[in-house]
Amino acid sequence: MMSARIGLGSATRRVAFAPVIGRNHTVLRTLIPKRGVQIQSLPPSASEEILNAQRLKRPSSPHFTIYQPQLTWLGSIANRVTGGALSALLYGFSLAYLVAPDTFDSAHIVEFVAGLPDYVKYTGKVILAAPFTFHFWNGLRHLSWDMGKFLSLKGAYRAGYAALGATVISTVALVLM
User: Fold this and answer.
1) Per-residue model confidence as pLDDT tens digits over 136-166
2) ∠ at Cα 133 (80, 151), nearest 5°?
3) CA distance 100 to 9
4) I want to staple 97 with a disulfide (CB 3.0 to 4.6 A). Which of 29, 40, 58, 104 is the partner?
5) What gap in Å lies between CA 138 and CA 92, rounded to an integer?
6) By the 8 A CB rule, do 79 and 72 touch?
């Protein structure tokens, strides 16, 4: 209550508790220039067109085609692709067996494969064995990364080349079975 002793009590209270917006309203009105904004009503379909036009003007993030290919990201992409392809093959065969169990039973498949020429059999074996073995060895590589192994650049490349070498050796072994 020091302001009451000096005699400025009511004036100080008025300034202190006056709304901030109203204090310098006339000064602010003359300092800030007014902008003319036009508003028009648009149909809901126009919002999608405006959004698409804005997206075309946005800068695109760098695409992987501008970078030099590296073993780490090529192996990661190939691991995802082989995993997806093997899953699609498994689910496709499972659905085919559910739809027509007499056509896709083991006896019919063995009989069909036995009638194929040798080069088709070996090609089919390579097509099935290569993605399977790559996904297996590269999956072990990823598990080693999860355990904290081979995380240096040199270690990552060594593990990548080891996975590729093991893929080639195990693919050849499976094809020659």
Assistant:
1) 999 999 999 999 999 999 999 999 999 999 9
2) 60
3) 95
4) 104
5) 24
6) no
